[in-house]
Structure formats: structure tokens, C-alpha cells
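Researcher: For the annotation table, I need C-alpha cells for Dibenzothiophene monooxygenase. Please keep the output clean. Sequence:
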Amino acid sequence: MSNALSTGTDYPLLADRFRPIFQRIAAGARQREQDRSLPFEQIGWLKQAGFGAVRVPRQFGGAGASLPQLIYLLIELAEADSNLTQALRGHFAFVEDRLNAHASSDQQRWFERFVAGELVGNAWTEVGSVKLGEVVTTVSQRDDRWVVNGSKYYSTGSIFADWIDLFARRDDTGADVIAAVRTHQPGVQQQDDWDGFGQRTTGSGSARFDNAEVEAEHLFEFSTRFRYQTAFYQLVLLAVLAGNGNAAVGDFAEQVRQRTRVFSHGNGDRVSADPQVQQVIGHASALAYAATATALRAADPAQRAYLARFADDAEAERSANIDAELESAQGQVVVAELVLRLTSDLFNALSASATRSGLQLDRYWRNARTAASHNPLIYKQRIIGDREINGTEPPYIWQIGSGAQHA
């Protein structure tokens, strides 16, 4: 059973496989940020090392990591470069879906692809003034083949990937589906046109599909999608935020160690010995610690939901999915506030010179603010409150589009 399911592994041993790569990734993170250079090479290092297969069961050649262990590993990667963790969010979500699908149908072929280093991107959000709930991207059958037509935005990580996890609608039945589309074909065009002020090297641009082919066996009914998917997407963003916070503390601490100029009204002849500066770094470190601990704790019920999928206990699975959704939302509210605070407060440890563009210290706040903006905190807070007061089951799926007055 332990080999057939991803129940966990020796985390220090697992992390030691990737930490030298994380160090190499971190070494160039500041320059990539300044140049807005996409990390194709760095993603390649992770692919070759089998990073994308850490959740695949050991029986099929993966590491068999639990979900909390995956999140911990993604936090470590985000500490090296938070953009890479977010770029791989779509991949690990698709892996998670195939892990759950294995309960009812053999997914060995997909597991083999993941172990071979193949990565999956993401393309769900429609382009333009689409009505709420409307899906313009279509899958249709033409001349005995299935093709996809449409445009997507926020296609995070797809530009680095071998496959795209694409949300579309069948034109014959009207059913919503997931199409696993190969990226390396003439019908797929991708652009790095994300223009946000943070997380700028995630490859989160637009994708266009012009009669892009998709095999029939790579069409999956959306209704079969793993239940805790929204919670999972949020857990990865928690890893992005927590790792980003850890990196900020380390970078600012290094700047304090190197600083020689002091203020006449300061508390010492070295900045590193100034008790108030030490307090700033210490408080930020504590906030980063709390963010990491919260992210890891929030991953526990998602792992329970995964295991319950194989236990033939519908009530246990439902309960775990509710907990996964709620705890990921609770974690989102807290972690976002902690990391946004610490990435701003850390500037109190230095002076105006810390704002120099060459240092790129502002990237930690910009990246945190961007990651924290993906799923509006105010709506998650309301959902949590509704559960606490009225026992209301949280929504598992949500969409974005034009409201009724603009339809």
C-alpha cells in the first residue's frame, strides 16, 4: 500500500536531492528579475532531476512524497526563486488529478511521463469580456481527430511545459472538459506577455490554440476533477509566499551584515550590532517562520482527502475536502498578511540605499503582493465566516467573468 500511494518519504533525504539545484537557482534570481529573463535553463535542471515526479508513488518510479512534503519542498524552491514554484503550480495540480484518477483507472502512462521529466502547464482563464461561467474555448471533432480552438490568459508555466492542462467545452455535448494538449505542435502559440509588477518570470502569459490536436484519451470530464483542486492551487501559492518571506529575511540579513555606514543617532558602531536592527530582522524571521508553519499545517487535510479517495468512505472524503478548502483559505488569509508585512517592515533595518534598483529588494514585496492577489482575500474571509457561523459548505470551484450588467 505504501508503494502504491504517495503517503510520504524521508524528507531530509528527498530535499538533499534538490538543494544543490535550489542553490544554483538562487544564485541567478536577482539578475533574472532585473533582466526579466525567463528561467528555461533552471526549469530544465529541475526536470532532469525528477522534481516533477516527487508526488508519483514509488511503485511507479516517483518519490512518493506526501502533500505536506511537496509543499515544504516548494517552499524551499520558492526561497531560491518564488517564480519557479508558481511556474510549476499547473504541473503539480495535473499530477494531483492523475493521482486521484488512479483510484478508478490506471494512470501508469502519465506517471511514466512525469518520471521521464515531462511537465504540464496551465490554461484555464478565458481572454476578453467573457460572461461569468462562459467557456469560449472549444474541443471539437474534425476528420476523425479532436482539435482545440480558443485563447487563454494566465497560462502560468505553459511556456516551459510539454503539455497544457486546458479547460474547454465540447461543442457536441456542451460538457466542460480538461484537454491535455501537447505544446510542441503548430496549433499552439504562446507568448510571455504577463505585465504584472511581480512574479514576472513565471511564464504566465497568453496561449492561442488553432486546431491544436488532442488525443481522445487525453480528454477528461471536468466533473471528475479532483475535489480539493482549489485548495491545492492555494497551497502552492502559500508555498510561494512562505518561501518568498524566508528569502527576504535572508537577503536583508545579508545586507545588514555588509553595511558599514551607521547613523549618529543609532545604537552602535556597526549596523549588525544595533539592537533595534536586530529586532527588525528577528521579528521578520518570526513572521516568516509562522508563514511556513501555517502553509505546512494547511496541507494536512488535502493529503487526507487524497488518501480518502482510495478508502471507499464517501463521508470521510467529503469531510477531508471541506477541511482542505477551509484550511487552505485560513492559511491564505494569515500567510498573505504575514509575508506582506515582513517584506515591507524589513526596510526598517536599512536606509534609503536599500531601495536601489540593483539590489532588487523590492521584489520580495512585489512578488508577495502579486501572489496574494490571485484569490481575493475578502471572499475567502467571508467563506470562512459563513462556515463558522452557519456551517455552510465552502464552494470548491469558482470562475471569473463579466457580471450580468455587462453581459
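Researcher: And a one-line annotation?
Model: The mean pLDDT is 95.
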